[in-house]
Amino acid sequence: MVKSRDLCRGIDRSDGFATLTLDLFSGSPNPNPCSYSRSAKRVRVSCASPAAAAAGENRSNLFDSLSEEVLFLILDRLESDPLDKKSFSLVCRSFYAAESRHRRALTPLRSGLLPAALARYPSVSRLDLSLCPSVTDAALASVGGALRSSLRSINLSRSRGFSYAGIESIAVNCAALVEINLSNATDLSDAAAAAIGRARNLEKLWLARCKMVTDMGIGCIAVGCQKLRLLCLKWCLGISDLGVGLVAVKCKRLRSLDLSFVPITEKCLPAVLQLPHLEDLALVGCLSIDDEGLMSVKQESKSLQVLDMSNCQHVNHTGFSSMLSKTPGLCQISLAYYCKVTHSLASSLQKLCNLQSIKLDGCEVTTSGLKTMANSCRSLGELSLSKCSGVTDEGLSFIVTKHKGLGKLDVTCCRNITDLSLASITSSCTSLANLSMESCILVSREGFRLIGQRCHLLEELDLTDNDLDDEGLRAISGCHNLCVLKIGICLKISDEGLIHVAKGCPNLQELDLYRSVGITDIGVMAIARGCPLLQIINLSYCTEVTDHSLRSLSKCSNLNTLEIRGCQVSSSGLAIIAVGCRKLTKLDIKKCYYVDDAGMLLLARFSQNLRQINLSYCSVTDVGLLALASVSCLQNMTILHSGGLTSNGLAAILVACGGLTKVKLHSSFKPLIPKPILEHVEARGCVFQWRDKPFQVELEPSEVWKQQSQEMHV
């Protein structure tokens, strides 16, 4: 982590000057730096020496002498952790002012903070309000007034409480606005769409699940926003062929169009395919499109590169083949939960010279279909067969042998493949970066060892619910670039295997050990020492994990997600995590029976970035719960079967936590919490989920749980 104190170093000299050395260019710069030249590394400024100060001469602040250009260079080097920039701004007045002018992105947690934030940061161009459960029209009006010339992007995708008036304030006042995300605004109607139409420079617009917007509203957008390049209308059930046709006629610059689950037919497709720059088209779940309709379409699209026709239940290989013949430039195709992938369907891929990615998740696949696909495609880089029935060793081996350049392969729940497939995969596709093989139950422990022996470039590996053992992990430890490793429900791995991973995979950022019951503190401690970049770890139901593991994990300062359901941890261990892992945003301590109010008090004091917590079955009372009210970021709480809580305590925390967006409670509390309080919290944008789940004391043995899970899949 780059700190402001590491970036500059003052060297006093006897002549009354100081040389300030700035280490600004040795590391990776911010991906979106402000626009200015990057010239000087060394700045010589006038500053009286301590001796001169003692003599009574005027002394200026060395940092105040730095130019804004240099200060912006320093800010570009600071990481995204807001605490770093906050520390920087507290150095002196000039640093405070520079940080204020440098900030381009703002993500407040509640709209009540907007007035102060807008006054503090007048140059914000990207405003994300998706974490604010309620945003009023008055708040949007203040945004339109304060960021009139700078605002380019606003995200309201999970906010409520505003109407067309608020949107109009933004659209009219912010002439530079190019992006608006209004997804999930289910109450917005055509009046809001008409207001959007006044944003003449808009280039990207998301309206997913805006179910009340009709053809009239989308027509206003089409007429007013003719510079649109991206438009998402997913689940806009009020829009038909007429509205989509208007968009296609007016918005000629469109490159990405999502019509998933929109009740359209093939009638609008000729106009859509005629868009000269269209590259990405999603038609997921368009149930009114069928084979006959697709075959009637004559218009071609040479620009289209990505096509998603997943879950189009009335389209078979004839309609799909007809569609492919009109889109020869496709690079990526998704047909998840589609019809049977046969020889005829695969043959239609022959004309797609640029095809690099095929996703067939949930389809019924035949061996002849896979072989034809292998011969039809020239150079696949990504293949997803997740949950496909009919995948065999013969078909899979054939396709990976033909396409040795595969970088990503997903065969999750392909339960008929064996070591033969894995041998072909690892010998042919040695450049694999991402491999998912969850629940491939016929692959032996010897087969999994081939992964580490041959695929040394792997970055992500998912072997959840497999016959993996410590020797397999020893081999996998040779994948030194590994960032994500998921080995949950692997009952034969132990600390020995984790020690190998810790030694060989220093770049590991995510580790999933869910229900891998052979893991103890020894293995977790090894991971904490060997993988300092760790951000996410799941130790749920690893019942031998105790506070010793938490003590070691507290040294992983980047840890943001910790799941320890059913572990033998206490408030002491949780306190150590709270102090050491200040970036923690998600915490699951369900069935951690030894966590009580003491743990909550320290968590509330030190984990100020916490957004999601599960306290079910913990020994927390009203006192500990109320302590969490000081965590201003908290948005999501799950509290089931916590015997020490009362309805009064729950009511108090609901009122005190103004940023809550989702709360899951036992249904027995619903009649006990005053109705006005529930209505007040809901009015702020919070959604309640009431559960009537019975109390469960004993944990199911992992072997029993795994057997039940496999029976469900059969």
Number of helices: 29
Instruction: Classify the beta-strand content into a percent band.
Output: 5-15%
Q: What would the principal axes of the Cα set say about the shape?
A: globular
Radius of gyration: 29 Å
Main pleated-sheet profile: 24 strands, parallel
Give the structure's gist in a few sentences:
This protein is of the alpha/beta class. The chain has 29 helices and 27 strands.
How would you portray this structure in words?
The protein is an alpha/beta fold and 714 residues long. Helices cover 35% and strands 13% of the residues. It contains 29 helices and 27 strands. The chain has a 24-stranded parallel β-sheet, with no helix packed on it. Strand 12, helix 14 (317-325) and strand 13 (332-334) form a beta-alpha-beta unit. Helix 6 (114-120) packs parallel to helix 7 (137-146) and helix 10 (215-224) runs parallel beside helix 11 (241-250). It is globular.
Features:
single chain, 714 residues, alpha/beta, 24-stranded parallel β-sheet, three-stranded antiparallel β-sheet, 29 helices, disordered N terminus, LRR_dom_sf, Leucine Rich Repeat family protein, FBXL15_LRR, Leu-rich_rpt
